[in-house]
Amino acid sequence: MFKKYIYIVIAAVLIVFQSNAQIRPGVSNSNRQNGSEEKSESSSRKNKAPEKPKIPSRIRTWQVSRQGTRIEKTELDTTMTFYHVYLPIFQKSISNTFVGNNGGAYISNDFFQRKPNSDFYFARSFDAYWLTPSQINYFNTTTPFSLLDYSQSDSKNTKNETRFNVFLSQNVNKKLNFEFIYNQTKSQGQYLYQSNKFHSIALVSSYNSDKFLSHTNIIFNRLEGQEDGGIEANQPLDLTDKTENFSVRMDDAVNKLQNNTLFTVNEYRVGKMVEADSAENVIKRFIPRVGFIHEFELSGNKRRFTKKDKSEDFFTNNYVNTGLTNDSVRFTRLTNIFQIKFYEAPDRKYTFGKRVYIGHDEITYHTATQLGDLGAHPFPLIGSIFYQISSPLTNFSDNGKLFFSKQANTYIGGGIFREEGKFWQWEADGRIYLTGYRSGQTELNGYVNKPLKIGRDTTSLRIEGSLKTLVPEYYDSYFFSNNFVWKNDFNNINEMTIKSSIRSQQYKTTIGVNYSLIGNYIYNNSQALPAQSKSELLILSAYLNKDFESDHWVLRTQALVQKVNNENVIHLPAFAGFISLNYRTIISKVMHFQIGADTRYNSAFYADAYDPATARFYLQNTQLIGKYPYIDLHANLKLKRTRFFFILMNAGSGFVGNNYFMAPDYPYYRRTFRFGISWSFYD
Length: 683
Description:
This protein is 8% helix and 50% strand. The chain has 6 helices and 35 strands. The chain has a 22-stranded antiparallel beta barrel. A 3-stranded antiparallel β-sheet has the order 2-1-5, with no helix packed on it. A two-stranded antiparallel ribbon has the order 3-4. It starts with a helix and ends with a strand.
């Protein structure tokens, strides 16, 4: 019931927000309730002074990256074409290894899409459900803009899934904007003990003037999910008509994740005013020459894994407690970056931008577990000495600290870039860590983008590359819990990556090839422990994305092929594809209607298994996953500012087969229905 009250309160706030936005200044509520005499006075005023015209709604959106030096324009998506693709994992990648319920752990089957949004090691299998500063869209609006987005499963009582998102944005004046974001999802799942719920709350502000830019956000992320360990072996998916009749491997394990982030980047710019083109109706405009930028970020993260009953029925080891497992990991990072940016001069030829910065990170790692039976299992004390943990375990009997470490990293970096050129755009930048845990780590990145005019088509050729020497992740080297413990002395990782692509706007086609060569690659072996490859790993992939559109038909195709030289350290599908066929029309000249089918497919491969205790995927060589078409049937509608979707997920289950495992022991949804609605308000 409390959750329902939250929805009511948020809806009430939205109504008040919109009502206030629509009341014109100078018109009081009393004027709306007086008698005919005041009405006549009001009409006489109207005759004397004409009513002000309605302000047109104009919305500008952008994202901030590269330590605040890049402001990249984005588009507000209110289209209906792929509105039905609401699962976050499929918004990121066409093919995934997935535990089967919205909010559950996943890893992309496209190697070059494995770029975590979170730097918290144990949250990376869930980062599609989190909101991070790099994902924030900043707004500037002439009128208030708000968006309500809701979806629901076919049943509210059993196997329920509910999604409710709210977005509000309003400018205080031409320069200052505020946003409020609330995203919540709760999914019970079809199988026993796999319920998940997650939500994000964000307060965002942006200020844009000629000389001062500011972008700030406060983000709260929460995720809680039951871990059932998958279904028991030797249970074919057509064994029973009811998914809740399948026996699962655990019924008492819970995974909780939380993140709190404060992020702000501010820039003071020095430049000059110049006369602008008369066509812009602006007498003068500001051209920045130098920008002084400061970025601050405080990120606090925590993971807790609990299991109430004996753990030896699922996990091999129990180092601290044979009954209760209560592990927690905390990760805190405080970052300050000071930067000077020299802008490109659009009024000068043959110029390029430059930037240089210095940064410092303060990072705290903390691992703890339950010590209820310390007398029977004194391993934590012995283990702390054996593994040579640097920090003393003060107040050991009171707070149960098993590991604590504080690290600091200082680094410098810089780059040169050309972003405003019509002939080409390019960038080269680098970073080197001078002190701290990551001392000696170097990162070099660059890209070249060349527009090509071929007939009426604007084609672009893009080549990007990186050369990195990376210090292993801290938790790949040190970790202590009830079920896992390791201390590794890994060598630095050497990584070279080259990506190239050709994109045609007219033909809506993108073709790309990716290549990566990695030395000392770190992976999770078949015992779910970090290991390092002694030989170089080579990964090659190619992809094709093509859209076909006519007045009534939309066909989207995406194909991916991959090849690795060492399948002892990584498993990837050789082929993955996505195809969406849609028919669209307009009903009664007002309602846009679309009906279609989506199909996802990947070739059979030994997909990574999932370990709930560490929330990580690891190698396995016993169960093939794939070679099954996941078919979704959908209908989308749009009436003015309102969108609807109706989707039958995995519609082919039972007809095209029953091998719809998306991870070892973790099946996908059996045929199920979802519907959703989205309202947009522009005033």
